[in-house]
Amino acid sequence: MPTPSSHIVVKTPVVDAIGELYAAHGLGRKCAVLFDENTRALYGETVLGSLRSQGFLTVELVVPARETSKSMSSAWKIYGRMIEADIDRSWNLLAVGGGVVGDLGGFIAASYYRGIPVVQLPTTLLAMTDSSIGGKVAVNHPLGKNLIGFFHLPELVLIDPSFLKTLPSREIYGGLAEVVKYGFISDRGFFNLLTEHFDGIVRLEEPWLSEAVSRSAFIKADVVEKDFRESSGLRATLNFGHTFAHGLEKLANYRNLRHGEAVTLGMCCALFLSHRLGFLPLAELDEGLALIKRFRFPGGVIEKRFLAYGGEELIDSMYSDKKKIDRKLRFVLIDRIGHGFLHGEDVANADVLGAVNDARAWFTSRH
Ligand SMILES: NC(=O)c1ccc[n+]([C@@H]2O[C@H](COP(=O)([O-])OP(=O)(O)OC[C@H]3O[C@@H](n4cnc5c(N)ncnc54)[C@H](O)[C@@H]3O)[C@@H](O)[C@H]2O)c1
Q: Which of the following is catalytic: 7, 215, 220, 343?
């Protein structure tokens, strides 16, 4: 079984080295390549051309560029195309896109012919630093997101930060939420680097962009390696801010609020909760908030939407998060910048509400 970190390659341009990398990892040159419509239009010719010039046999598969492509019906259609193209266990699947393509591609690879290898070629910041790593692959069910899936580690994750030059800035900020999260939960030095070079990273300047992408990817891989099946609580720390974020996404009906935007708001609530419960000193709370303040979401819309929800409304919505245990909410907190932990005890609703209201007051004071 591949281990998460030994199979991550960060390189520009990575596709030129794909033949060598496949050979070094024992992968065959028969490759089903999954895109969404956008990544096909932007990078299809480059990726397919490079594969063919390096002697690969390829079959191209394309899905619409939207979250609803992560569905059983979409997987079903792709299985059909693969069967018609005589794709068998000697093939592998290369997923070229954001988290939607990566999750769908991984799901299809985990199930097709009882499992074929998957290689991830992430093209969004979120996919490069989070979703392509760690082997969680899933499709959505009408009753909830990511409910039907597998643990299916990629044989290779090929990261080329230069793909980000075509990504809209809203998606860059969305991905940066997860990047900043790694600083909060596991690496003070990385947090300092992000604070110092935040604007350069947003402008996709090197070497800061590659440094941020690569450090995030390896932090995630390291956490996953130590707690693959989420049994010790370590992998759960990757959910810093996410209990609040899932509640917000649900309140917004998963529309008009990107996951990273919800995570940014959620991290703000989690910082206040960490402080309120006596774990996080005030100076570190302020430092954390100062970094979050630098996120620029379009027209302040996201903050305004957050302010439009009542605190109680958000808490009710959080109770429907699938990660609750015995209807109790579980929170990842930090006790200093660079160290997250899963809080083992129940948190009183009054404290959760207090933290949400602190965050609301903080956002209000910014407008
Ligand atoms: N498996 C995991 O561990 C994990 C972790 C976090 C999130 N996820 C999943 O990831 C998904 C979200 O992923 P996402 O944020 O990457 O969204 P996405 O895949 O929907 O991509 C966002 C948009 O950017 C476009 N795009 C992709 N690359 C581009 C590029 N280089 N230039 C221009 N446009 C580009 C896409 O076509 C799409 O329209 C969700 O389904 C979420 O559940 C999975």
A: 220
Where exactly are the structural domains of the chain?
5-165, 168-365
CATH topology classification for 168-365: Dehydroquinate synthase-like, alpha domain (1.20.1090)
Torsion of Cα atoms, 38 then 205 then 303 then 301, to 10°: -50
Taking CB atoms and a 6 Å cutoff, what residues make up the pocket around ligand 1? Answer: 36, 38-39, 42, 65, 67, 70, 97-101, 103, 123-124, 126-127, 130-131, 134, 136, 145-146, 163, 166-167, 171, 174, 259
Which pLDDT band, with edges at 50, 70 and 90, does 329 fall under? confident
Residue 6 has pLDDT above 80, yes or no: no
* CATH no. of 5-165: 3.40.50.1970
Q: Which of these is catalytic: 70, 92, 140, 178?
A: 178
